[in-house]
Amino acid sequence: MNPAFNTYIQSMAGRDVTVIGAGVSNAPLIRMLFSVGARVTVRDRNQALPRKEWDDLGIRLHLGENYLDRVGGDIVFRTPGMRPDHPALDSARAGGSRVTSEMEEFFALCPCPIFGVTGSDGKTTTTSLIAEMLADGGRTVHLGGNIGTPLLTRVGVMSPLDACAVELSSFQLMDMTRSPHVAVITNLSPNHLDWHRDMDEYTAAKRRLLDFQTADDFAVLNGDNPATAALRGRGRTKYFGGHTVHDGVIDGLLPISDIRLPGWYNVENVMAAMSAVQGTVSDAAILETVRNFVGVEHRNQWVATVSGVHYYNNSIGSSPARTVATLHAHEGRVLLIAGGRDKKVPFDEMARLLPDHVKVMLLIGEAATQIEAAARRVTGCPPIIHCEGLAEAVAQAHKLAAPGDTVLLSPACTAFDQYRNFEERGCHFVELVEALHRSEGKD
After folding, report:
1. Whole-prediction pTM value?
2. Which residues, including other chains, have CB under 8 Å from residue 250's CB and lie 6 or more apart?
3. Residue 250: count of CB within 10 angstroms of its CB
4. Three-state SS for 224?
5. Do the Cβ atoms of 299 and 123 come closer than 8 Å?
6. Eight-class DSSP state of 404
7. pLDDT in tens, 358-398
8. What is the pLDDT of residues 312-347, one digit of tens each?
9. According to the 3-state scheme, what is the secondary structure of 1-54?
């Protein structure tokens, strides 16, 4: 076992530890803390949380609306979705608690190089590409972070010769005091303004990925994105973008035609990943990864072709900027399914693309009226249909689409008005399309 991690684990015995949030990502942390003798209290808003395992272990539970009453203990683990300056956390600090997070503890204890990725769009694809490139280059790779896999509980099996590829959200970064060895910022655009106070706070959170680097570390930034082009790492910095492409070849190494992912934004994701690992793995490993990589679930994912109509699941498209990028990736006219809970980000830029890219717009969820209002302000607005939910939207799209058309789920909003997360929304879309495919009985 990693000696530093072993010391850390031993230090938890007998400590009062509070974990806020008992979701899937925190469950391994809760089990680990209990197994080493910590006195664990779990707090979660969900009154209906499945509690048998925690009751059987004797873990104290505070559930429901008052779950944050009198938060305390020796150590408090903040869930990423909770602001670091929440009054309950401020009160805990005042009472002597050390407030931390699973990711902060992981960064402190990880024995191997960390490749950290953040940005408004492209985080998961870029992180996954980096992990694949490192693995194809012969490294043992640990992939996690905002992707959904907790890493702190796995530190004990990590070697200094391994590598970690970690996706990081602004929520996780906001109070981080450490930076990765290789920091990648894919791009920055307005996002999560329903959670952050303003764009300045959101940008500052993302910039923390660089703030604690040293002269020995490496930053990879998007030179074509004004917000990231204005940043610089504390060590070596490389800017990827169109300036690295000559005669259709990136960095003199990779023909763009070899990239199997659609859209220029995916070319940028590949550039970012290449830049991050060059010098760590061979060019051959990079080329092998790119030529075999076909994408990540819910990210402009081809689902099926039904009666000549192509169905794509981009449920990750939870902001207007993501939907804009995805529309650019599709040739021809699209039947766009959009809507959900908005992030207080304007839909105007997306609306300007509609006349040239969208054949029909099918709107669902809480933000449908706001999206329609933005669309109606644009000359040449396509037909708009309001649907009760995703099932009706898919059924309507099936009726209206002609062979060669694309039906695209790219909501430009979060899923939280109707689903637990974007994955659940995307899976529902896939189920609906697969049922449609079976009923048609042909491609």
Report:
1. 0.77
2. 244, 256, 267, 270, 271, 274
3. 21
4. coil
5. no
6. T
7. 999 999 999 999 999 999 999 999 999 999 999 999 999 99
8. 999 988 989 889 888 887 877 899 999 999 888 899
9. CCHHHHHHHHHHCCCEEEEECCCCCCHHHHHHHHHCCCEEEEEECCCCCCCHHH
